[in-house]
Amino acid sequence: MRLLYFAWLKTKMGRAEEEVDPPAEVTDVASLLEWLRGRGPVYAEALSDLSVVRVAVNQEYARLDAPVNKDDEVALFPPVTGG
Amino acid sequence: MIKVQKQDFDVGAEIDALRAGNTAIGGIASFVGTVRDLAGDTPVTGMTLEHYPGMTERELDRIEQEANRRWPLEASLIIHRYGRLELGDRIVLVVTASAHRQAALESCAFLIDWLKTKAPFWKKEETRGGETWVDARDSDDAAAARWRKD
Fold it and tell me: Could B119 and A75 be called an inter-chain contact, meaning their C-beta atoms sit closer than 8 Å?
């Protein structure tokens, strides 16, 4: 699974993207975020307030119950501020 | 039409190109967003716009299609820049053209309101204290919400 980070999430994570291999219990966005938070203090801190984290799966906005699998591109980013 | 680009754009040339040869058009509305020198009461000296290549184009395309479903448009254009921008630089251009003014004006407002809450762009402002990522504004959500159809 390819993870992409944008804006302050990229800054906090210290990287723009990474390849991850989540365990079988990661089946949707919610369980993916929970698993990521358990990977270490940097992840836990960056994902401590999910009200300011938006998720896209394969470049489409996704809710917490949206399914994810190992071939997906999952992006985590703050609420958008363009325009 | 959607354009996501680093370079500046010429508003007049873009409007002329969009309406060229289409005499069904009777009204054209446009919005130009520019880099402002204040964030609240903090002086800003410049900004950098980051985006999500691929998803940005998909979202803008989807927003434009929605405008075309809601209003009888003859033509529409969204240009959004990314990268480093100076004070006063143009950031975004929305142009809508229709037979009559109401559809053009309303759809132009709709497009910029929706773009601000859906298109994956993020602004990082430069101030005397350093660089800060801009927080999303509740007022932008409220502006977008008025176009929601429930």
Answer: no
Of chain B residues 2-31, which have a CB less than 8 A from chain A? none
Nearest CA in chain A to B33: A83
More confident residue, B149 or B35: B35
Contact A83 B120 (CB under 8 A): no
Give a yes or no: residue B113 inside a domain.
yes
- pLDDT score of A79 more than 80: yes
Q: Residue B124: what are its φ and ψ, rounded to 5°? A: -115, 115
Q: What are A3-28's pLDDT values in tens digits?
A: 999 999 999 999 999 999 999 999 99
Q: Which ipTM score applies to this complex?
A: 0.95
Query: What is the DSSP annotation of A31-62?
Result: HHHHHHHTT-HHHHHHTS-GGG-EEEETTEE-
**In contact, B122 and B80? CB cutoff 8 Å:** no
CATH number of the domain at A2-77, please?
3.10.20.30
Task: Give yes or no for residue B150 having a pLDDT over 80.
Answer: no
Domain ranges of chain A: 2-77
Q: What is the mean pLDDT of chain A?
A: 97
Residues B54-74 pLDDT 10s:
999 999 999 999 999 999 999
| Nearest-CB residue to A8 (from B112, B117, B133) | B133
Beta carbons of A6 and B122 less than 8 Å apart: yes
Q: Which domain CATH number covers B105?
A: 3.90.1170.40
Give the residue carrying structure tokens 């000296």: B45
Both tokens assigned to A9: 């999430």
